[in-house]
Each structure stands twice: as C-alpha cells, then as structure tokens.
Amino acid sequence: MLVPITNLPRDYAWGSTSLIAGLEGREPTRSPEAEVWFGDHPGSPARLPDGRTLDRWLTEEGAAVGAPVRLPYLLKLLAAASPLSIQAHPSKAQAVAGYAREEAAGIPRDAAHRTYRDDNHKPELIVAVSDTFVALAGLRELGATGRLLRGLGEAGTAVADRLDASTPRDVIAWLLSGQAAAEVDGVISEALEARSDEFAAELSLLRRFGGAFPHDPGLVVALLMNLVTLRRGEALFVDAGVLHAYVEGLGVEIMAASDNVVRGGLTPKHVDVAGLLEVVDGDPAPPPLLVPEQVAANVDRYAPPVPDFALLRVQVDGEPVSVPLDGAAIVLAVSGSVSVSEGTPGDVVALTPGKAGFAAGAARISLTGEGEVFVAEPGR
C-alpha cells in the first residue's frame, strides 16, 4: 500500500514565517510555521486522502497490509527562526518512571505544567535541509568554556570559577535555581559589548536573542554548550540526556514516537529544573554529529544506535532508484519532483517539496524523476 499523507504546520512561536513556505513554493502566511508532523502521533497525526488520520487508519487497516498498529518513529519538517527551548529528553526507564509519577499525581496529560506526556524515550536526529542549520548540542570542553566565560567580566569569571570547583551539572543547577541572578545578568550585560575572535558566533547568538529572553539563565547555560553549524546534508543525533536547542534553519527531523521534553530555559513554556537535572548528561563532549553511510549510489543512511528509526537520504537524478525498506516507511520530498512506486500497477504517489507518502507492506520502493527525498523507516 502506498498513499499520500498531509498535515498542517504547527505555529510555535519560534517557527519561521518563510522557510516551510519557501520549500513548498508558496507565499508565506506571515505566521510562524515551526513543524509539520508526518506520522501517527496523536498530538498531530497526518491525514490520508479519505480524511482519516494515520493513527486511525493503522488501527483499522494497518495489520491487513503488514503495518504496525503504531509507528515507532515520528518524521518532521522543522523550521526555526529563533531558539527552541534548552532541553533534554529522558531515557526509556526515566520516561516510564516519570510518566507513572505524573499519572499517579493526577496531572492531566495536556496540562501546561506536565513534563511526561507518554512513557517513551525520545532520541532524535536532525539533518540540515537549508544551506546552514544552527544548533546548540551537548556541553563544550571545559577549557574552551572557561576562556569564553573569563572574557565576560567579573560575573563570567565567577561562573568559570564555579565550573572549575564543581561539575557542569552543578553549575547548571546553580544557574537555573535563581540563586545566580546577579551573575546571570552580569554575564548577559558583558556579552552585549564583548568581542572575541574565538567565540564571535557564541556572543553574536546571545546578542541576537538576549532581548527576547531578558534575565533568562538559559542564555548563560547556552554559553556552556557546543554551538554547531550544520551544512546541508549534515546531521546531529541527540540521544537521551543530551542538552540541546535548535536555533535557526530548516531540517528534516526524525525521533522516537514521543512528546517528552524536559525544558530548562529560553521558553515561555513550563521549565522543569528538577526534571532537567534528573535526566541531563553533565559530561562535556564534542558535538554529536552523525555521519551517514553510503549504502548505494545516491543513497545515504543515517543510522543512530537506537531501534526506533533510521533515515535515508536519496538523490534522484533521472534514473530510477530502488530503495529496500525495513518496515513501514514515510517518504518526504525536499526538492524537485519525484514519483514513488512500490510495484503495484497504478500505485504511484507524485511528490513535490514538502509533500509525503506512506508505504506499508512493501519490501522496496522505486523512485523516479529528479529531486531529493528522505525515507523514514524503523531501525534495525
């Protein structure tokens, strides 16, 4: 079975007013368009041509064509014009415990102050589709962070001294606790005027977005993190506990089917400091880049070490490309015009940028035309 699926953009405040519209070749709506969800997640399930949501269709008919009742992954187009919240995601065990705790406390699942909306983990992978995609991901090597902070006056030096005397996790706890308000304001004030060849991009980021989050300790936490600029086709894999915030750009994102986000700043949404400290990985590490493996001509596979998902990037240049599948798949076009077939006569979906199709029960699909598509499937 192969059918087109569609969805509407979600209007989160950090979304771009132009990136998704530009990809799809239409006029911008002048409202933020942050994410388009292609999957069966009940928060915003995709729709089939007959009007049914994908989750409903999988429940009613999925088994008959070899599809699961629930997809293990969620595929998205993500378009950021300003930072998403600084956040981390729980492990599976943490999600199970946190969900049970909030269920027992009687917190409604749609409550603004609820953290665990399901009992699943949420590892995620993002691949840049725009020429550049900017993100904060993981904690920077401590020597470099010390040099950055000590260039930001007495307040920055105080944060650096505390980092020398304790752990990054303890410093994050101190910054987010409210006890460091003077140091936070001092660092932000110094950063507005500071200049640095080594950390020009970090300071520029703080100056650019500091006005939207005055006095927010998340701005100082951001200075502890790796600032990464992905080029088109480059990817980040964010596993459980990795502190991160996507900043700017258009990407294709795939994740385990979950909506569990533990926020620590740069957001008007609920900030769960205790919850963040419970799940965050406090060890400095290089940015978590994921290099794809070329599995065939014009086919790259991004395969993080999780069973929930893998992502294929396929360049179609006029010759048919045959792509084997490891389960129910979603095909999303990001350039050109590509037709998708699974070999059944008349079972063809034509895709243009921003359009998607769902393939269930097929061992492989064939792609023709010219363009670039991403294929989401379960991991191995």
Span of the ends, CA to CA: 22 Å
Radius of gyration from CA coordinates:
21 Å
Number of helices: 10
CATH topology of the domain at 294-377: Jelly Rolls
**Which geometry do the CA atoms define?**
globular
pLDDT under 50 segments (min length 5)? Answer: none
The share of residues in helices is 10-25%
Structural class: alpha+beta
Annotated CATH architecture of the domain at 294-377 = Sandwich
Number of strands: 18
Identify the CATH class of the domain at 294-377: Mainly Beta
Distinctive features:
single chain; alpha+beta; 10 helices; Jelly Rolls; 18 strands
Describe the structure.
Helices cover 24% and strands 30% of the residues. It has helices at 19-24, 54-61, 92-104, 142-150, 153-165, 168-176, 181-193, 200-209, 218-222, 273-279, and strands spanning 2-5, 35-38, 73-80, 86-88, 124-128, 132-139, 225-231, 235-238, 244-256, 262-265, 293-296, 299-302, 310-317, 321-324, 329-341, 348-351, 356-359, 364-377. Strands 1, 11, 12, 13, 14, 15, 16, 17 and 18 form a nine-stranded antiparallel beta sheet that branches. Strands 2, 3, 5, 6, 7, 8 and 9 form a seven-stranded antiparallel beta sheet that branches. The chain has a two-stranded antiparallel sheet with strand order 4-10. It is globular.
Which secondary structure elements does this structure contain, and how are they paired or packed?
Layout: E1 2-5, H1 19-24, E2 35-38, H2 54-61, E3 73-80, E4 86-88, H3 92-104, E5 124-128, E6 132-139, H4 142-150, H5 153-165, H6 168-176, H7 181-193, H8 200-209, H9 218-222, E7 225-231, E8 235-238, E9 244-256, E10 262-265, H10 273-279, E11 293-296, E12 299-302, E13 310-317, E14 321-324, E15 329-341, E16 348-351, E17 356-359, E18 364-377
Antiparallel strand pairs: 1-17, 2-3, 3-9, 4-10, 5-8, 5-9, 6-7, 6-9, 11-12, 12-13, 13-18, 14-18, 15-16, 15-17, 15-18
Helix pairs in contact: 4-5, 5-7
